[in-house]
Specification:
alpha+beta; binds 6-O-phosphono-alpha-D-fructofuranose; about 30% helix; single chain; 17 strands; five-stranded mixed β-sheet
Amino acid sequence: MKPISLIQFLIEERRAGRVNAELSLLIEVVARACKRIAVATNKGALGGVLGNAGSDNVQGEAQKKLDVISNEILLEANAWGGHLAACASEEMEDPQPIPDMYPKGNHLLLFDPLDGSSNIDVNISVGTIFSVLRCPDGVTEPKMEHFLQPGTTQLAAGYVVYGPATLLVLSFGHGTHEFTLDREVGSFLLSRRDIRIPEETGEFAINMSNQRHWEAPMQRYIGELLAGKDGPRGKDFNMRWVASMVADVHRIVTRGGVFFYPLDAKIKAKGGKLRLMYEANPMALIIEQAGGAATTGRERILELQPTGLHQRVPVFLGSKQEVEVATRYHLMADGAQ
Ligand code: P6P
């Protein structure tokens, strides 16, 4: 049987009362914009879009040309649709209001337009991460504080991974589902419904080069994984690190695993490396809706009360059992202090 398209899926969800018309149209617009980003990334060197843009983003990171292009594609696609009150992006200091000439909607869209962009020039998978919040009633000119809602209030979260295939993974809080882009037709087709992440795993993802900077409980936990079957865990573990969150998370969504970007002495002052509002929160909803867990090593990510649009947090996510073990080690160490 031919898989259903994203649009058919969205109509089903609307009929089931799990999504309203405005939100489903917003997701269609975002998915269409990501198809354009896929075309741009797939051009590689032929598109004249590799390399640095010669500017820095709000994080002080050198922007790739494709960062800027992807950001513009998402802003332009969402300006006229009438579903949004404002957008926020990793690439922009402040929220972007919808231009006055267009109708405004009741949603706020946050995104990392091209996560992992440092991998573009070496042709490793990158992705777009997005999160949808409700715009507070009566707010027509959303300010930053209107975006600072806990991850549990997200109406939708998703990512698109631009890899050998272009895949959209999406959750409205009623399961996590995967769509594969059929390039010949130009449609996203449902490839996995109600994904379940195995609770146990033998695979972890972390940037080991930071090991000497980790907190003691992280040293202990990873040390036990590395000890393998002769150690306290009694089994061998494999390791992966793509350094593209969307690619690492998608591997976990596909076959299980656990991903860590813990606090370390280098980044402790900043609160972590990954951003809460448009990386950790959307990924946490997707992972939890697939039966996994997502914490900061101490707290459930989705329950954090945000304090800033570009706030950074530690991220432990993936197969529930391993996230729980690593989190327990941190809480025990805190309790011992
Ligand atoms: P590191 C990419 O820059 C990113 O924000 C995530 O996509 C990725 O998981 C992480 O940073 C990689 O960080 O320190 O290994 O380069």
